[in-house]
Amino acid sequence: DRNTGTNREPSSFPDFVDMKERSRQFSGFAAFAGIERTLTPPEGEPIRLPVLVASHDLLPLLGITPSHGRVFTMEEDKPGGPSLALITARLWARQFQRAADIVGKTIRLNDVETTIIGVVPASADFGTMQILRNAAYARGFADRDLRSRVDVWIPAQADPRVLVRDTHPLLVLGRLTPGATIATAQQELTKIMADLEA
Predict the structure, then answer these.
(1) E strands along 15-83, which residues?
(2) CA–CA separation, 198 vs 196, rounded Å?
(3) How far is CA 40 from CA 51, 106, 109, 184, in A?
(4) 20 to 30 A Cα–Cα from 58, which one of 17, 68, 172, 197?
(5) SS3 for 109?
């Protein structure tokens, strides 16, 4: 960002949509952002948890399959969609003692009843916190309490009327198409972003 001098700046939601529609060097894109939510268990004290807001295509893009249940669908990822969550194997063990019937159970996140649709395996830790620590505007979230892992994943359900182009909350990952290189992908994205800026 020439105005702020920041590097590794997160993307706006409209820019993310434009990248997906205009790019030919990438077979797919996915977006995520780090937030916090309060988990209120049936018994005991509320717990503050690191949560990843993720587009429905993030786990499939990374080749990660839930050990139980499923990922979010495109329909569930739209504004006004249902309150759903994927939880990590660590939280599944800690809060639910690895209950086999975990899919369909609910948790209270910020006082919202949220349905668990799957358990994300330990292999889903793809360095999220390291990425967030290196992003210009996500470091505070990632560094808080020196946390290293995300506990809950929820669908982004991004609304372009709320997440306008001037806001940059999303980190974006892309998978190159066969035959594409980092150089050709960078060249293409540089042109796309210059066109959007113009």
Answers:
(1) 26-40, 47-54, 68-69
(2) 5
(3) 14, 11, 7, 47
(4) 197
(5) strand
Q: With beta carbons less than 8 A apart as the criterion, state whether 102 and 68 touch.
A: yes
Distance between CA 130 and CA 146 in Å, rounded?
A: 11
As given in the structure block, the two tokens for residue 104 are: 């369909």
Q: How confident is the model over 7-60, as pLDDT tens digits?
A: 677 889 999 999 999 999 999 999 998 888 999 988 889 998 888 899 999 999
CB-based burial of residue 77 (10 Å sphere; 0-12 exposed, 13-18 middle, 19+ buried)?
Answer: buried
Distance CA 87, CA 37 (A): 13
Residue found under tokens 């050990």: 67
Considering just the CA atoms, what is the radius of gyration of the chain in Å? 17
Residue 27 neighbours by CB distance under 10 Å: 13
Q: Can you read off the two tokens belonging to residue 139?
A: 């470091």
CB 92 within 8 A of CB 102: yes
| 61-72: b (≥16 Cβ within 10 Å) or e | beebebebbebb
Give the pairing of strands 68-69 and 112-120. Answer: antiparallel
Structure tokens at 172: 């974006």
